[in-house]
Specification:
Chain lengths: 264, 192
């Protein structure tokens, strides 16, 4: 009776002990020297594994940064805070990194504001639609609105409503994946503190824009004249606000006739 | 020789581990998003299943049967498989770092996968000898590979389809998996 209990306990226990010992021996014998800094850097990272830095994941980024293959500021999601931590761990100076940025869709056109040139029936993918004569919209620079950026965002920060992609500013980490995903290249990374943006990317002439879209920039240059610090310049017939000079006073938004300048 | 061939073919087609026996569904659904990770995962599974079948058969024959402790099969096999996979991972990391990079990350995933335990227990149930057990382990792993590769192809195609909002993601994946499984049921009776 006692033997019946003791023998199986001895066998299973013995097996466990044998495996435990062999594993600890093996882990010592086959140890791969991992630089301690890699673990420290890894812990400092946000850990989202979004691959925005260009590496496979946070582990790979930690290894690359310690090896010196990527700059300390490589993690766009972590921003300056993480870059500073990494610089401290590695004992290097952090060169003046760009300040934290956030993504914005430079288009305000929805199904209601902008006309279509044809009815699209096909794969609901912006790349696919844009390949067909520049997309179903009459404006070649309009957001295609089929959600390629929404699916690409690893932080679920993009919502497509009414044929227009909208970035939820509170969730966006500025990783830049949507910028690469957009086939029209109308998503831009802007410094976090900028509130006023010309929400249009159309390089068409003003009269053309007026015919096809009610909220497009028509190049009237009223905003350029209204800006007290001269932060707005014209790129052809498209106004652009220089984030470095902008003081967020809002004068431009007041004078814009087509409500193209929005405050985020 | 003929017997070995029958074991392999039936493990892959007639009694596919994932699609007919419904074992190992977790990594099947988890890693089948694209072909490259599917390939890495399947290679790791074949590897683990082959070694695990052999090791558990040996432990069973020379420890459990000898002392009439067959009731300890489940717990002992789990112990053996877990330790074995850990050992393989440690050795692999040191000796073949390139291989470790491609399939090493999947090894912890399959440690307590029910498919691996399933192979071990089925070997005992069917009274296979050592060679047959290892062959069955390899065959089961190959069956998993076939299922996983097929399904990752299906899933890649599904990405481009216009699926109703309520079915997107897991629901349509499960439905697709069920249909593939249904297709494999057609192989039943191949060897009767």
């Amino acid at each position: 009776m006692v033997a019946e209990i003791l023998i199986p306990v001895a066998i299973v226990g013995g097996l466990g002990l044998f495996f435990g010992l062999s594993l600890s021996y093996a882990s010592k014998k086959f140890e791969v020297k991992v630089d301690e800094k890699v673990n420290l850097v890894r812990e400092a990272l946000p850990g989202a594994n979004c691959a925005a830095c260009g590496q496979i994941g946070c582990d790979a980024f930690a290894e690359a940064v310690v090896a010196g293959k990527v700059p300390v500021t490589g993690c766009t999601v972590g921003g300056t805070a993480v870059a500073k931590k990494i610089a401290d761990i590695l004992g290097v100076d952090m060169d003046n990194a760009a300040e934290d940025r956030i993504a914005r869709v430079m288009c305000g056109g929805t199904c209601e504001t902008t006309k279509d040139k044809y009815e699209y029936k096909g794969i609901m993918d912006c790349d696919a639609a844009a390949a067909l004569y520049g997309g179903p919209s009459a404006c070649l620079y309009k957001c295609v609105g089929m959600g390629t950026c929404e699916r690409a965002c690893p932080f679920n920060a993009i919502v497509v409503e009414n044929g227009l992609a909208r970035i939820v500013q509170s969730k966006c980490t500025g990783c830049g994946i949507c910028v690469k995903a957009c086939p029209k290249k109308i998503i831009e990374l802007v410094p976090k503190h900028t509130h006023h943006t010309v929400v249009c990317s159309s390089l068409d002439k003003g009269n053309v824009v007026r015919q096809i879209c009610t909220v497009g920039c028509i190049g009237c240059t009223r905003c350029v004249k209204a800006c007290p610090v001269g932060a707005i310049s014209m790129n052809g017939s498209l106004a652009r606000i220089d984030a470095k000079k902008c003081t967020n006073c809002g004068e431009c938004a007041k004078v814009c006739p087509s409500n193209t300048i929005k405050c985020f | 020789m003929r017997e070995i061939l029958i074991i392999i073919v039936s493990a892959i087609l007639v009694e596919n581990f994932v699609l007919i026996k419904f074992l190992g569904i977790c990594p099947f659904l988890g890693v089948s998003k694209n072909m490259s990770s599917a390939l890495g995962m399947s290679a790791a599974v074949v590897f683990v299943m082959a070694i695990a079948s052999g090791a558990t058969w040996l432990v069973n024959e020379y420890l459990l049967v000898r002392y009439e402790l067959e009731y300890l099969q489940t717990i002992t096999f789990i112990l053996v498989i877990a330790a074995l996979v850990q050992f393989v991972e440690i050795v692999l990391k040191k000796t073949l770092p390139a291989l470790y990079k491609s399939l090493g990350i999947y090894l912890p995933l399959i440690t307590t996968n029910c498919a691996v335990l399933g192979v071990s227990l089925l070997n005992i149930e069917r009274d296979y000898n050592f060679v047959q057990s290892v062959v069955y382990g390899i065959g089961a792993g190959l069956g998993f590979t076939v299922a996983l590769l097929l399904f990752s192809g299906v899933r890649e195609k599904l990405e481009m389809c216009d699926i109703p909002k309520s079915l997107r993601g897991l629901p349509i994946t499960l439905i697709a998996a069920a249909l593939v499984s249904l297709a494999f049921f057609g192989f039943k009776g191949l060897f009767s």
